[in-house]
């Protein structure tokens, strides 16, 4: 491979990559271009098919005309024979032979062209169906593209939402609440161990001791009264 051929291949590959990138970035335009190209080719095919149909119609008209001429010749020939006009009869026979040969040739050609016309019409209809199919494919593929792009965008958005910040915030809140609880516990513990708290505890214990002493005194007095009353009762019974 020569130097210029290698350069040509490099340039061709470069532009192919550019075209490929453009096609991927704008698939709608690619589909539209393909559809328009097929519509153009369909119009060309339609024109060609119309030419075949025109030729078929022309052959049919010519076949019908020669068929009528042959019918006329066949009707005139017996009259010429009966009238004894051999010259006219010979001319009519020549014309009959020519018409029959022409009709035979036209029949073969007409069958051939008619078959071509039917095949061309079927091909044209099939090509039209391919265009409609391509249009449906375009709509479906563009819808898939839009759906895929939306999914990718949503996924990208979800990927961009990191949960680290949320977890860190929760940890900070939990730690803050635990610290508040610890501060409350410390305050309670300090309050319980404070001098005032201890004095109150001593006063409470002192109050309890005094009350118990008073209760014991009351119980003793009550017992003494009961004993005195019992002794007086016993003395009266003895008297």
Detail the poorly predicted runs.
10-19
Distance between the termini: 161 Å
Judging from the principal axes of the Cα atoms, what is the shape? rod-shaped
H/I helix tally = 5
CATH class of the largest domain: Mainly Alpha
Structure summary, number of beta strands: 0
CATH-assigned fold name of the largest domain: Helix Hairpins
- Give the topology string: H per helix, E per strand: HHHHH
Mean pLDDT: 79
User: Roughly how many Å is the radius of gyration?
Assistant: 61 Å
The overall number of domains is 2
What CATH architecture of the largest domain would you give? Orthogonal Bundle
Sheet-strand content, in percent, reads under 5%
Note the main sheet. Answer: none
> What is the percent of helical residues?
over 70%
Structural write-up:
This protein is mainly alpha-helical and 239 residues long. It folds into 2 domains: 3-161, Helix Hairpins, CATH 1.10.287; 167-238. 95% of the residues lie in helices and 0% in strands. The protein has 5 helices and no strands. The model is unreliable at 10-19 (pLDDT under 50).
SSE inventory with pairings:
Blueprint (H helix, E strand, L loop, with lengths): L2 H23 L1 H56 L3 H75 L3 H29 L2 H44 L1
Question: Short description, anyone?
Answer:
By secondary structure, this protein is an all-alpha fold.
Features of this protein?
5 helices; mainly alpha; 2 domains; rod-shaped; single chain; Helix Hairpins; 239 residues
């Amino acid at each position: 491979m020569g130097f210029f051929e290698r350069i040509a291949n490099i340039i061709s590959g470069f532009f192919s990559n550019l075209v490929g990138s453009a096609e991927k970035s704008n698939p709608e335009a690619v589909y539209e271009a393909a559809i328009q190209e097929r519509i153009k080719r369909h119009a060309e095919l339609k024109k060609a098919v119309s030419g075949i149909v025109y030729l078929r119609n022309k052959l049919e008209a010519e076949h019908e005309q020669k068929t009528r001429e042959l019918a006329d010749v066949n009707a005139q020939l017996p009259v010429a024979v009966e009238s004894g006009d051999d010259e006219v009869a010979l001319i009519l026979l020549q014309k009959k032979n020519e018409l029959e040969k022409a009709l035979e040739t036209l029949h073969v050609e007409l069958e051939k062209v008619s078959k071509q016309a039917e095949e061309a019409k079927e091909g044209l209809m099939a090509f039209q169906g391919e265009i409609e199919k391509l249009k449906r494919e375009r709509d479906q593929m563009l819808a898939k593209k839009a759906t895929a792009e939306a999914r990718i965008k949503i996924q990208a958005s979800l990927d961009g939402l990191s949960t680290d910040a949320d977890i860190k915030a929760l940890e900070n809140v939990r730690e803050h609440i635990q610290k508040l609880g610890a501060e409350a516990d410390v305050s309670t513990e300090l309050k319980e161990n404070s001098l005032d708290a201890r004095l109150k505890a001593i006063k409470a214990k002192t109050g309890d001791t005094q009350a118990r002493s008073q209760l014991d005194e009351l119980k003793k007095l009550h017992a003494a009264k009961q004993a005195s009353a019992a002794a007086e009762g016993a003395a009266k019974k003895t008297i």
